[in-house]
Amino acid sequence: MIISMKLHSSREQIDAVRNTVEHFGYKVHSIEGEERVVIGVVGVGDVTACLESVEAMPQVEKVVRISAPYKFVSKEFRPSKTRIRVNGTEIGGDEFVVMAGPCSVESEQQILAAAEGVAKAGAKLLRGGAFKPRTSPYDFQGMEEEGLKLLQKAKKLTGLAIITEVMTDRDVPLIADYADVLQVGARNMQNFMLLKALGKCGRPVLLKRGLSSTVKELLMSAEYIVAHGNPDVILCERGIRTFETVTRNTCDIAAIPALNELTHLPVILDPSHATGKRSLVPALSRAGVAIGADGLIVEVHPIPERAISDGAQSLDLAQFAALMRDLAPYIRLWESSRAILRL
Question: What is the pTM of this model?
Answer without folding.
Answer: 0.88
